[in-house]
Amino acid sequence: MDYKEGAYKVRDLSLAEAGRKRIEWAESRMPVLMHLRERYSKTQPFKGYKIAGCLHVTKETAVLIETFKACGAEVAWSGCNPLSTQDDIAAALAVAGVEIYAWHGQTVEEFYWSIERTLDRPPHLTLDDGADLIFTVHHKRPDLAQHIIGGSEETTTGVKRLRAMAADGKLLYPVFAVNDAETKWDFDNVYGTGQSTIDGILRATSVLLAGKNFVVAGYGHCGRGVAMRARGMGANVIVTEVKPTAALKAVLDGFRVMPMDEAAEIGDIFVTATGMKDVIRSRHFRKMKDGAIVCNTGHYDVELNLKELAELAVRVREVRPNNKEYLLENGRRIYVLADGRLVNLAAAEGHPSEVMDMSFANQFMAHLMLVEKHKAGEKLPPQVIDLPEELDQEIARIKLETMGIRIDTLTDEQRAYATDYTAGT
């Protein structure tokens, strides 16, 4: 392990060259973020501000980090999941002078140790994916909150928990809900999660998806993306849900819908995408076919109750990378991918660069707004705040332009008509 106190702790600095090549590849696929880097590196809006970040250490995240640095920010970073850090990327960032504490395969203790190191020198801004950094500030270092201008949160699970904290009056500083920007949730969550989850399953198993009964637990944006891509690979998709409107959408989108207790008996591959604990547990594992494949693409590793599965097993062994075989007393074998953590990041590379381009443009702009308001002397309330609609549209417009796609614009007369409440039939 390569470690320099106060600077970095990563797996192996010799991986840096390979990581740098992958970062450069991501840069070539992230034109919106590179546009922002070029534009704001001239004015250095983040000079004098420190950002503490806790987000998956991937090549796309590296582009975001280096964009912040190019625009004047001081950055300290940790991974937001013990299995999602890509060691070559962490090494490349450390060599480039980024303060980073991240390596693949961390223990829970190492994971939180890394987060706390990013807070050793108090930050002005926090950037989160899952809100573990924000929770660490609130629960272990509340003294830092008075110096923090604000933060941002990347994922659905984190935003829900932060809104609950704000409703209880416990949130100590404002947080932008980046996840709730349309150019994030309707692209990253759907197209990113869909493709990268299938990628992770294939890397860990190399199975044929065509003709398989593919069970997706949860039909939110992430689950919808997974179901869409699984059907595209020829799978017979079954959806399980607890929310009536989500279940109805799945039915009208052409998928079979049933309770997990029924799906467990016929499924070949199971993916959880709910953000809820114990979605698949002992009674479901007992019903599964010999050879069933089970994985999770939600943020936390609580959706599969692997403790109960281990109690059913007479033997557990790793049969290939990120793929463990649980042999049950009844002789059936169940294969769990990536230890129940995000299969798209633990067993693959995470979302494609092209879709993270928009998500991370939102992150950059959220922090730019926080800094600009701070410089103007404007203090935001300690709430979870949505990004402006016009920012969503601007990011989408830039993305379309980089793709060579043009769209129509409303005339002045049409804009007036849109809000003319006197117009009739």
TrEMBL record:
Parts forming coiled coils: none
UniProt KW keywords: Cytoplasm, Hydrolase, NAD, One-carbon metabolism
Domain of life per record: Bacteria
Pfam families: AdoHcyase (PF05221), AdoHcyase_NAD (PF00670)
Enzyme class label: hydrolase
Free-text remark on how the cofactor is bound: Binds 1 NAD(+) per subunit.
Binding positions for substrate per the UniProt entry: T58, D129, E154, K184, D188
Cofactor(s) needed by this chain: NAD(+)
Subcellular location: Cytoplasm
Keyword Transmembrane helix: no
Cellular component GO terms held in the UniProt record: cytosol
Enzyme Commission no: 3.13.2.1
Gene Ontology terms: biological process: L-homocysteine biosynthetic process; one-carbon metabolic process; S-adenosylmethionine cycle
Cross-referenced InterPro entries: Adenosylhomocyst_ase-like_sf (IPR042172), Adenosylhomocysteinase-like (IPR000043), Ado_hCys_hydrolase_NAD-bd (IPR015878), NAD(P)-bd_dom_sf (IPR036291), S-Ado-L-homoCys_hydrolase_CS (IPR020082)
Reactions mediated catalytically: S-adenosyl-L-homocysteine + H2O = L-homocysteine + adenosine
Binding residues annotated for NAD(+), in chain numbering: 155-157, 189, 218-225, 241, 344, 351
SMART domains referenced in this protein's UniProt entry, alphabetically: AdoHcyase, AdoHcyase_NAD
Its biological purpose: May play a key role in the regulation of the intracellular concentration of adenosylhomocysteine.
Family according to the record: Belongs to the adenosylhomocysteinase family.
Record-linked NCBIfam families: ahcY, PRK05476.2-3
PANTHER family cross-referenced by the UniProt entry: ADENOSYLHOMOCYSTEINASE
Record-given protein name: Adenosylhomocysteinase
